[in-house]
Automatic annotation (TrEMBL):
Stated name of the protein: DUF1648 domain-containing protein
InterPro entries per UniProt: DUF1648
Domain DUF1648: 12-60
Superkingdom field: Bacteria
Protein's organism: Clostridium acidisoli DSM 12555
Length: 98
């Protein structure tokens, strides 16, 4: 994959993540459920401000790490960013109070 294309995809993931997190912030509960136990109840929570900041920071960290250490397969970087992006969207839309 072309390195410029990878940079563009990473930036697109980052921008969309930030937009979604900011747009849904006021509709999220005070604590975001992060883990469901065997009984189907949430048993691990984090504050919504921390959640809203974590995914963009992780995407930036992965992107910086991949370029500092010259990751040989940049496609793997896009896959990891995609997983974080999808997980972020899934968690947000499962927690919305509209």
């Amino acid at each position: 994959m072309n390195e410029n294309l990878i940079k563009k995809i990473s930036i697109i993931f980052l921008v969309i993540t930030i937009i979604i997190n900011v747009a849904t912030y006021m509709y999220l509960p005070v604590k975001i459920g992060m883990h469901v136990n065997n009984n189907g109840t949430m048993d691990n929570y984090i504050p919504k401000m921390l959640f809203v900041l974590v995914t963009p920071v992780l995407i930036i960290a992965i992107w910086i790490f991949s370029f500092i250490y010259k990751a040989s397969n940049k496609f793997k970087v896009i896959i990891v960013e995609t997983v974080f992006f999808i997980a972020n969207i899934w968690i947000i839309f499962s927690q919305l109070k509209i």
